[in-house]
Specification:
- By secondary structure, the protein is an all-alpha fold.
- It has one domain.
- The chain is built from 15 helices and no strands.
- Helix 4 runs antiparallel to helix 6.
- It is globular.
- The N terminus is likely disordered.
Length: 370
């Protein structure tokens, strides 16, 4: 591999690492509000829920990019290889968490846990009622991604069988537009009649996969444009910072559109706008002219590497840290507790990374070689 290609790939990964680190930081700060927290943290982190939307855009871009690159090189997509990679990357650590939550109730951060089969089948995000389930609820977003991982390669193979060619890229913006109609229907006939019922809006609008595909579809569309229309990528390569700035402006606009989380405007238009904003940011981050592409930071690289493990363990570790701290007479709403929860979450993620993730990734490589 030529040296300049190695450097370019490192820079490209650096840009995405910054965004992965940002995404998990937003998720952590937002979820921390569910526990004891300093007053300042609650005020500045209300928009942290968008971290999961950034993860969706990144996942769509990266996973589709791999599949589209295979097609562009005129190779056959191997479903077996694809699912082996996804299985060993996602499932082992996830099953450890399901086991811990199932057999050690003192680890649960909330009252009630969903039936184990909903976690094992990645269907937790359908019918999730926060009034009765308060444990490991953040797995809903992983369910959305797993359903996406299952369907995307099958859709691509079907389009190849039908000889759609690179026109497949336009399928995903069309699905994105169709999402407005789907959310409008869900708002009018599911959420609105039940808005007075606690948890109805999240159950019918926020959690279901059919309402949360925007970020994934935008990521897929960007990957398709950059792969099958390389002249577009060449044209935008020198405008990475402009794409980044555009994304930030759209993100600022989406903040005001989604101020009232559960109203019609936010439910139908706000969340796609958030995803579109992150789409511009991701597209900019992989352009050589973008500041995110040019600057590789050790800290964001490490956080990005641990992002999946942090995502899995952070609620459990925050809960345990605050319970222990409370027994010791510490202020669970204090800044020191906030710092200790960050440290404990990173420590738990490191254990997950080196005791579970890395051994299974090595096993994955041996399976693929065989």
């Amino acid at each position: 591999m030529p040296d300049n290609l190695v450097i370019n790939n490192k820079h490209k990964l650096a840009g995405l690492d910054h965004l992965r680190a940002l995404a998990i930081t937003l998720v952590f700060f937002y979820h921390y509000q569910l526990f004891g927290h300093p007053e300042w943290e609650g005020r500045i982190c209300e928009f942290g829920w968008t971290g999961v939307d950034l993860f969706f855009v990144l996942s769509g871009f990266l996973i589709a990019g791999q599949l589209f690159a295979t097609i562009a090189r005129r190779y056959q997509i191997s479903l077996k290889q694809f699912f082996i990679k996804r299985f060993f990357r996602i499932i082992p650590a996830y099953l450890v968490m399901v086991g811990l939550y199932s057999f050690a109730p003192f680890l649960r951060e909330g009252e009630g846990i969903a039936p184990v089969w909903k976690y094992l089948t990645f269907t937790l995000n359908y019918g999730l009622d926060r009034r009765y389930v308060g444990t490991f609820t953040h797995a809903w977003s992983l369910c959305v991604e797993e359903q996406f991982y299952l369907s995307l390669p099958l859709i691509i193979l079907l389009c190849r069988y039908l000889k759609v060619g690179k026109k497949i890229t336009w399928l995903f913006p069309l699905l994105f537009i169709a999402g407005f109609a789907v959310r409008e229907w869900c708002w009018r006939y599911q959420a609105l009649p039940n808005l007075k019922t606690e948890g109805a809006w999240t159950k019918y609008i926020y959690y279901p996969t059919h309402n949360r595909l925007d970020g994934l579809l935008i990521g897929v569309a960007i990957a398709g444009l950059f792969t099958f229309w390389p002249q577009i990528k060449l044209r935008v390569n020198n405008h990475g910072n402009l794409l980044l700035a555009t994304g930030l402006v759209l993100l600022a606009a989406s903040y005001f559109v989604t101020l009232q989380h559960s109203d019609h405007k936010a439910s139908v238009y706000g969340y796609p706008l958030v995803s579109l904003a992150f789409g511009f940011i991701v597209a900019g981050a992989v352009c050589p002219s973008c500041i995110l592409y040019k600057r590789a930071w050790w800290l964001t690289s490490q956080i990005a590497t641990l992002s999946y493990s942090i995502y899995l363990v952070h609620k459990m570790m925050i809960h345990l840290t605050q319970v222990i701290g409370g027994y010791l007479g510490m202020d669970v709403n204090g800044n020191l507790m906030f710092l200790l929860c960050i440290i404990s979450s990173i420590s738990g993620a490191l254990l997950m990374r080196y005791l579970v993730e890395k051994p299974f990734l090595k096993l994955r490589d041996r399976v693929l070689k065989s």
